[in-house]
Amino acid sequence: MSELHLLDHPLIQHKLSLMRDKNISCKKFRELLEEVAMLMAYEVTRNLPLEETKVQTPIAEARVKVLAARMSIIAILRAGLGMVNGMLRLIPTARVGHIGLYRDPHTLEPVQYYYKLPKDVADGELIVVDPMLATGGSAAGAIQLLKEKGARDITLLSLIAAPEGIQRVRREHPEVDIYTAAVDERLNDHGYIVPGLGDAGDRLFGTE
């Protein structure tokens, strides 16, 4: 069974609290999401594999450790875009893929409209990013698409999760670990997380 990792670092929690406030500007929301994504990336990459190599310092040869695996960030559009730059600031060599999914307002199930991945996703570590894990439909659908391309090492990173979304991802992809900064109460009748922070994509891009 996948593990649920609750990221309770004080800076993450503080910035998330600011993001929940409906009165902050689109600019401030965007900045905070980028900052929180960078902090969360530090936590989610804690157990990445390393390999030993050698470098020549100004004094002598040193045995050092470097990342052993390719890293790709897979953003679920639209809101996942807001997390990419923050993560790239920490992992600048990561490749970036995009999966476009929107939630059908009647069935609440994901509908795919865009799909562009780095080459050889089967050979590296993938972090799927989406600020809100609500029904879990988009996340589960994106993970399934990656598996069909041969991906094996997949992690899901979300800012806020609902119990329903966690349960769905665990049911459909029991080997995928989930990292989140908060597990909120529930979903409402429209599939939004309560109390949540509203529609992350709308708040990120200033749309309605």
Structure notes:
- GO terms for molecular function: GTP binding; magnesium ion binding; uracil phosphoribosyltransferase activity.
- Pathway: Pyrimidine metabolism; UMP biosynthesis via salvage pathway; UMP from uracil: step 1/1.
- Residues 7-207 form the Phosphoribosyltransferase domain.
- InterPro entries: PRTase-like, PRTase_dom, Upp_B, UPRT, UPRTase/APRTase.
- Catalyzes the conversion of uracil and 5-phospho-alpha-D-ribose 1-diphosphate (PRPP) to UMP and diphosphate.
- There is one protein chain.
- By secondary structure, the protein is α/β, with parallel strands linked by helices.
- It has a single domain (4-205), classed as Rossmann fold, CATH 3.40.50.2020.
- Helices cover 33% and strands 32% of the residues.
- The chain is built from six helices and twelve strands.
- The strands form three sheets. Strands 1, 4, 5, 6, 7, 8, 9 and 10 form an eight-stranded mixed sheet that branches. Strands 2-3 form a two-stranded antiparallel ribbon. Strands 11-12 form a two-stranded antiparallel sheet.
- The longest helix is centred in the first third of the chain and has 19 residues, at 26-44.
- It starts with a strand and ends with a helix.
- The mean pLDDT is 93.
Q: What portion of residues is helical? A: 25-40%
Counting H and I runs of at least 4 residues, what is the number of helices? 6
Low-confidence stretches: none
Please outline the major beta sheet: 8 strands, mixed
Broad shape: globular
Backbone structural class: alpha/beta
Order of helices and strands: EHHEEEHEEEEHEHEEEH
Could you tell me the number of beta strands? 12
Question: What top-tier CATH class fits best?
Answer: Alpha Beta
Task: Please tell me the CATH architecture by its name.
Answer: 3-Layer(aba) Sandwich
State Rg.
Answer: 17 Å
Instruction: Provide the domain count.
Output: 1
